[in-house]
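Changelog excerpt

This revision adds worked examples to the README so contributors can see how folded entries look when concatenated. The first example is reproduced verbatim below.
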Amino acid sequence: MEVRMTGITKSFGSNSVLRGVDFDIRPGEVHALMGENGAGKSTLMNILTGLHKADDGRVFINGEERIFSNPKEAEEHGLSFIHQEMNTWSDMTVLENLFIGKEIKNSLGWIKTKEMKALAKETFNELGIHLDLNRDVGTLSVGQQQMIEIAKSLMTNAEVIIMDEPTAALTEREIDVLFKIIAKLKSRNVSIIYISHRMEEIFKISDRITVMRDGVSVDTKNTSETHNDEIVRMMVGRDLEDYYPKKDAKIGEVVFEAKQLGQEKVFKDISFQVKSGEIVGFSGLMGAGRTEVMRSIFGIDALDEGELYLEGEKIQIKAPSDAIRQGIGFLTEDRKVEGLILDYSIRDNISLPSIDGFKKHFLIDTKAEEDFTGMLVKRLNIKSMSQEDPTSSLSGGNQQKVVLAKWVGIGSKVLILDEPTRGVDVGAKREIYQLMNELAERGVAIIMVSSDLPEILGVSDRVIVIHEGKLAGELPKAEATEEKIMTLATGGY
């Protein structure tokens, strides 16, 4: 299928989102669509698949002008959109999810389960997917759920599949499986529109790259004829000097210490220290136990053994409220589920942990609260029309900044950041790194969990590696390399 979009414009009220975008896709290619959060990528795809109507511009499918009135109509004509937030039903089986709303029935209306299973198995075999069709989807990993979404697309005879941040929550093994499936799809002349912030993936699997900035398509390049720096420059409109900004914070005394932490069958004998002004990176393979250690420190999950010390004093943390009182903040891995209340305003989300500080005679001093959140919105460069906007209206990078703002607001002594830049564009990433450096300069002790090895190496003063729930080793910045980290992460020495 050939798709061509020309001069696409779209505004929501006074907010101009797309300002004349050109985009095309050829049969059997992987076309990467890149740009900072808020550049208009998702809006463009929503127009292509009929969720939104363009204010101006034209869409051509195989040379004929075509405007879809809704996503179902687009799907019927071979365009499928796999969104970042997947459309699966956790309490239903794999088979039920594959055929929801598209069940195969006989003339009497009875569901033909046997025929549905045969078609599902045929599609799974084609893609190399091995899943029990009777298993509840809620018991599957994010990567496995994504495979179901791809299979659903193929079962509707999709000729163009749009993938929005498909690897954001996948393990390395699941990413390898996904890339093999994409290669199989290409061999069948299926086209992929691949939206991602991960440069190494884009250069590994794409044939062409289109960059968007501020609602405009900046340029389209053959992947083999461009490079990382050029794409970044097109995305942000300038050269990003010092992608990992220089850190000048003075490292002081030990602020936080964990001694022999353990949680049955998850992790054991975890001991480490973090000093004032220090950023300690935690690395390891997905499932090694890094996130579980941090959740236990913050009181989300219970510790079976071990001791915690803050500024030399032993502390007890039984719940997140205890951690917050002690001055420990935690930016969780899943910001949308655990870090934010998406329907609440930006102001409410930022001020929530500090709300007691705004009480006067049992009432909230709203003026003081607004001044406080306004200061943080400005300082962290959170892009919004108003601090009263719902947090759900923000881009991923700005949502991440809202989570950071609430922990900056309480004056955290220790800040735990779990995958702080996942799903965040290059410009917002640098702003987050800069903020981490500023906090370190103020004496905050920072723990950063990340699966991004260049990020671990670029930001951390020290790297601690976890393998299968145990400390595999520790590397000072001067000695840390990707090879050494991966050796420790896979159980080597």
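The second example, added in the same revision:
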Amino acid sequence: MVGDISYSTGETASLGDVVELDGRMGLVVACIESGQYAPEFPQEQWAYLETGVLWEGVEIGIVHIPSLLEPDIVFIRRKRED
């Protein structure tokens, strides 16, 4: 692991986190700095971004978020373990 990226509340981003981006709900599908990638988003295709997370929203698809400290990004909860 190279490093971690954190939300403004201090929690470290993790794969599967539920996050609100500009009022839209979605999931963290890759944490680039810590090397966590969902199977459908392989490291080989996304590591070139170097920082931040990939967020997937139902309405708008995949968004690269370089920093989670922006005011329009809200950490909602961790992935549910069913």
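Reviewer comment on example two: Residues 18-76 form one domain. The mean pLDDT is 91.
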